[in-house]
Design brief:
The chain has helices at about 10-15, 40-50, 115-120, 140-155, 175, 190-195; strands at about 25-35, 55-60, 85-90, 95-105, 105-115, 160-165, 185-190, 205, 210. The protein has about 220 residues and is an alpha+beta fold. The chain has one domain (about 10-170). Strands 2-3-4-5-1-6-7-9-8 form a 9-stranded antiparallel beta sheet. Strand 8 and strand 9 (about 210) form a beta hairpin.
């Protein structure tokens, strides 16, 4: 057991295997107005994210798993730079994850991702079906964790819009705005719903952030 890391030897081995980092990502992407976040604010955003109770990190590369976590003060804020760590999906399931910042037009995206190869180690990923709540039921369980992380970030630094799903941050913000009324993988500020003239739907947090795919009491078991 890598006690100081908070993860088992098995998890270390899984995270050291580069094949488990290949393929597409299942993401929580959060879009911020780029001009509102200077370098200090970006550093705080990344540090605050990695301090979430679901996350452990960080490292610069998968081959560093098994070594002590780096100080969060050393987290790189350069766009496109990846940091690596682990995410606890529940009390018995810990796998690898990563983060990066990405500048797209006037938006700065903060992305937390889990490779589908990692998720395939703990869930029955059906690649013949859409990686959605309808095609892969396990996505609801993962989204519950990601939505919780997103709500915590929103409370600290409100974002324009959050999105969850396979390669979710690859969609342009303008395109996502057109899906507010029907997409089940969004984290939408209540003021945005009002501005767009759309009735809020899903589950509302105390901060006024709506998870459009949330349904009270719904559970999924592996």
């Amino acid at each position: 057991m890598q006690e100081k890391l908070g993860i088992s030897d098995t998890v270390v081995a899984i995270c050291q295997d580069r094949e488990n980092w290949q393929g597409s990502y299942y993401e929580l992407g959060m879009a911020f107005a780029q001009d509102l976040l200077d370098q200090q604010a970006r550093l705080h955003l990344l540090q605050y994210l990695w301090q979430d109770s679901h996350l452990l990190g960080v490292l610069k590369a998968p081959n560093e798993f098994g070594q002590p976590w780096q100080s969060l003060g050393a987290v790189e804020t350069t766009s496109g730079y990846h940091s690596y760590g682990c995410i606890r999906l529940d009390d018995t399931c810990t796998i690898g994850c990563g983060t990066f910042l990405s500048q797209v037009e006037e938006q700065l995206w903060l992305v937390l991702y889990i490779p589908l190869a990692m998720l395939g180690l703990v869930y029955a990923v059906d690649y013949d079906q859409p990686v959605t709540h309808e095609g892969n039921l396990w996505t609801f369980e993962v989204d519950k964790v990601l939505a919780s992380i997103g709500r915590r970030i929103y409370h600290e630094i409100p974002f324009t819009l959050g999105v969850m799903g396979e390669e979710a941050s690859a969609s342009l913000l303008e395109r996502l705005m057109k899906k507010l009324a029907r997409d089940s993988g969004l984290l939408v500020p209540e003021l945005l719903f009002r501005r767009m003239g759309i009735t809020p739907h899903g589950v509302r947090s105390l901060e006024g952030l709506w998870w459009t795919g949330g349904k009270e009491g719904k559970e999924y078991h592996r």
